[in-house]
Amino acid sequence: MERARAALLEAEGKVAEAESAWRRALGSARQEVEVSRALSERSDGVSADRRETSMDNVEISLALNLMRQERLAEAEMAVRNVLTRILTRTGKYSWNTGRAARQFARILFEQGRYADAEKMALAAVEILEHAGVPVGSLEMLQARRTYAAALVAQTRWSDALSVYSGMGSVVETQHKLGNWLARGDVNWALALIKTNRHAEAVPMLESLTAESGARLGHDHYQTAEHRGFLAMALAEGGQRERALKEFAEATRALLARGRVDAEEEAGGRAKTWRRTLILEGYIRLLYDIRGETGERAGFDPAAEAFRLADAARGGNTQRALAEAAARTSAATPALAEVIRKEQDARQQLAVLYQLLLKMLAAPPDQQLPQVVAQMRTRIQELEKERRSLFADLERRFPAYTNLIDPRPATVEEARAALRVGEVLVSVLVADDRTYVWAVPRQGPVGFHAATLGEKALNRQVAHLRRALDPGASMSRRHRDRHRLRRITVGACRRRRPAAPGW
User: Fold this and answer.
1) Would you kindly state where each structural domain of the chain is located, as residue ranges?
2) Whole-angstrom distance, CA of residue 323 vs CA of residue 376
3) 342 burial class (0-12, 13-18, 19+ CB within 10 angstroms)?
4) In Å, how far from its chain's centre is CA 153?
């Protein structure tokens, strides 16, 4: 009963209430397991092992619920509990162990622990293989997909593509799973872009963008993300005019203030990383076309890139702190309650969209049309409610939107803060370039780039820090002094004349 209630609450986006229901369901499952163990076999014929498996499934569901709330440490503890029990009961090589390991990998991925996620996903694949799970089964494909995503997040593009290619060869004879896999995903497309196979990425991303637009709307965050990567692929292929249009449309939705779908809140560091990649890709294109296409299009590439760079520096932590500050800054308890309702509605929308995406991504025979329809209806209701709350806050608390979602600074706003003779210097370190803007109070904006990426810059910074470390510096000077002495003595010995009295 509680499991059904928990699943229903999650379908309605009431993630906190669903957590309570999952915990009650877990408590009931534990009691059933204890009774079953005591009686060895219940009168209804259900064994203790089967009831323990059922309890494991409930706790995995609880872990995923906590992950959706971004309570990732608690989610990790829950899934670790399940893994420990399963390993003790059935050993390493079982379907249950592999499934729990895959869910563990997902949680590690959301934490930004990509190397750990890679190891856990690979372990899940190995476990499922030894347990006899078919290589073309959905469970195995999902484990491999999680593994490939972890490789992409570590910029191991070629390794990830090998995994994706292997998945394709496995399911090419299975029509339903083949269609599910052939759609691709954004991580797969990104790996193609980064390995100069942008021509293959373009049709995949065109399909993903059209599909997500039809399912979720053209202004939805996921649609904008797909469009942003499509723009990257087009830019790499030299289609600059179309890439500019796609980038502009994508960033408009990615950076929209007071979003009503709130799906972007459902992800962790991986989602933030992808958004940063899109923004940096747009900045790269703007730098490459400065003074050319930008002028013909009627905008200043340097000014637009400056605004995007400010957005690229943002993060989820700042957002969370800003939301807490917004609640405490409310003039009255009633206003604080409106803020709370608006933020709760956004969180519910995030969970609903995440569940809807998961359901729509499943094979057709596993989708539930009635549940999907109910979720769409609930999403529409919540979006309408949040729009109303947001409008009320903008009227009663104008500074609210700037506080929780600061608008990226423009060149004009930067100029207004400068005095005569002052220049604002702004720097953005990207993957393969470092961009610098020089914004004077009047006159053109300087916009330059150095072929110095983040990794190279980090190495140089580490080298400078070692040089400034007194202990390391003294040790280095000591080594250098002895090295110079050995070189000098050796040179003198080689040049010493045979006659005495040298």
Assistant:
1) 320-404, 469-502
2) 27
3) buried
4) 9
pLDDT per residue over 245-256, tens digit each?
Answer: 999 999 998 887
DSSP classification of residue 267 = -
Q: Measured between alpha carbons, how far is 150 from 20 in angstroms, rounded to an integer?
A: 31
Alpha helices (H) along 289-332 = 293-297, 301-312, 316-329
Which helix (DSSP H) or strand (DSSP E) does residue 9 occupy? helix 2-11
Kind and range of the H or E element at 424?
Answer: strand 423-429
Could you count the other beta carbons within 10 Å of the beta carbon of residue 298? Answer: 6
| Tokens coding 128 | 């499922």
Strands 446-450 vs 434-440: parallel, antiparallel or unpaired: antiparallel
CA distance 331 to 341: 16
Q: Rg of the Cα trace of the chain?
A: 28
Question: Could you read off the pLDDT of 392-441 as tens digits, one per residue?
Answer: 877 777 666 666 666 778 888 889 888 888 999 999 988 888 999 999 99
Cα of first residue to Cα of last residue in the chain, in angstroms, is 101
Q: Which amino acid is at 447?
A: F
Task: Read off φ and ψ for residue 450, nearest 5 degrees.
Answer: -110, 145
Rounded (10°) CA dihedral 389, 394, 400, 402 = 120
d(C-alpha 184, C-alpha 186), whole Å: 7
The burial of 501, by beta-carbon neighbours within 10 Å (0-12 exposed, 13-18 middle, 19 or more buried), is given as exposed
